Amino acid sequence: MNRDGTPDLGDAIWDLKNDAQYTIAEDGLSSLVWLDGNPTNITNSQIETKLAELETAYDNNEYQRTRAIAYPEVKEQLDLLYKDLVAGKVDATGEWAKKIKKVKDDNPK
Q1: CA angle centred on 83, ends 79 and 84, rounded to 5°
Q2: Which of 41, 38, 101 is nearest to 70 (CA)?
Q3: How far apart are the C-alpha atoms of 2 and 93, rounded to whole Å?
Q4: What is the pLDDT of residue 43?
Q5: Nearest Cα to Cα of residue 85 among 95, 76, 75
Q6: Would the pTM count as exceeding 0.85?
Q7: How far apart are CA 16 and CA 108, in angstroms?
Q8: Which of 56, 74, 83, 87 has the fewest Cβ atoms nearer than 10 Å?
Q9: Contact 29/9 with Cβ under 8 angstroms?
């Protein structure tokens, strides 16, 4: 996985064969060396296809990553839920529900 969380060649290879032993230099797939002899004969084409699938899945879930950052911390959410419970507003009119709805509305699927 790259520093920004996007999938890389290692993720694709691991998804195809999670016990593969290999090295990859900076120039990518062209520098792939199988340390285990590639006993399952994974091709570069399979790796490229799997990487494209992983990248698509990553891109399709951007809203989840954005929401995760935007949601209040769990302790704040619990405090809001408690206050709503005491106020008799454990429904869509409570403050917790309003905050969660705003995050969802601001970051649609």
Answers
A1: 115
A2: 101
A3: 41
A4: 94
A5: 95
A6: no
A7: 31
A8: 74
A9: yes
